[in-house]
Amino acid sequence: MTSNTAGRTGIAFVGVAGAVLLAGCSGSAEAGTAKADPSPTSTDATAPYADGTYTAEGAYQTPETIEKISVTLTLADDTVTGVEIIGDPIAPETTRYQGQFIAGVSDIVVGKKLDELDVDRVAGSSLTSGGFNQAVVGIKDQAVVKDQAVLEDQAVIKDQAVLEDGAVAD
């Protein structure tokens, strides 16, 4: 069985400076949602995450098969600054739904705190969000700061960047 790999893969990438759609997929973008936990128990409930780019896989069940997506998130100050998703649909209708999801997800997740991400529907695609949310859990596990020294290093690097831009230090 031959497949058209280019036709089965869609990528969306968003940078802080603006949205750039790299995928050849297009579709009407219905409003999606990202839900935050309505009642956080304390400010310590959110974990600090190391700045960087992280990738994890997510899977979800469709009526025909189990589909997978690869999610890459770029984080700065615990906030999503970029997203890239690669889909590899098996079922024919999954191509459309993954394409719609990929085309619309950046508008929902970029600029949000990582701990606030809980995507439930994007541009008519509701099942793909299950794979996305599963991948986000994996990304959180990778990015969580396990060592206070990492946070201190990030703070020093950010302070140095400010000074290099010509800001006056106190």
UniProtKB/TrEMBL annotation:
InterPro entries (alphabetical): FMN-bd
GO MF term set: FMN binding
Cleaved signal peptide residues: 1-31
Keyword entries, A-Z: Signal
Gene Ontology terms: cellular component: membrane
Name of one Pfam family that matches: FMN_bind
All copies of domain FMN-binding, residue ranges: 68-136
Protein name: FMN-binding domain-containing protein
Species name: Microbacterium esteraromaticum
